[in-house]
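Shipment paperwork, digital attachment
Item: protein structure file
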Amino acid sequence: QVQLVESGGGLVQPGGSLRLSCAASVSIFSIDAMGWYRQAPGKERELVASITRGGSTKYADSVKGRFTISRTYAANTVYLQMNSLKPEDTAVYYCNTLMVDGRAYWGQGTQVTVSS
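Attachment content:
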């Protein structure tokens, strides 16, 4: 069983920054990709950003230029640096990992609230 431990959510004013982190309990060699999704009230869960084991990244159009996903190779940890936050970024953010065998796992979610 893969465990994903998330941290870094909270309340921030518009224009502020937060950094989310997600630590996986397995070897990096078992992971094909890691990513962040978010779900706002009344909306479907959507991909925010992802990064493959090779380092390729993908971003939702709504966060391009503001969010950056990165990872530490040895520590199996993925980060999401969120800058210039907007109220519409308010959501529960979930870490996701896709294993090389096709299985996917989710973290417990962390709340991000952007409000003045």
